[in-house]
Amino acid sequence: MPDSAAEERLTNSPIEAAYREKTPGSAALAAEARELFPSGITHDARFLKPYGLYVDRAAGPIKWDVDGNDYVDFFGGHGALLLGHADPMVTAATQQAVAESTQFAAGQRREIAWAKAVKRLYPSVERVRFTSSGTEATLMGLRLARDFTGRNKVIRFRTHFHGWHDHMTHGVASHFDGRSTPGVLGGVTDAVVLVDPNQPDQLRRVLAEDKDIAAAIIEPIGGSTGYTPLAPGFLALLREETEKHGVLLIMDEVVTGFRLAPGGATEAFGITPDLTSWAKILAGGMPGGAIGGRREILDALDFDAAAAKGRDKIGHPGTFNANPVSAAAGTAALTIIAETDACARAAETGRALREALNRVIADKGVPWAIYGDYSIFHLFMQDGVPVPDPFAFDPLSLPSVAMKDRPKELIRLLRLAMLVNGVDLNPACGGLVSATHRAAEVERAADALSASIDMLRRAGQL
Question: Does 189 score more than 90 pLDDT?
Answer without folding.
Answer: no
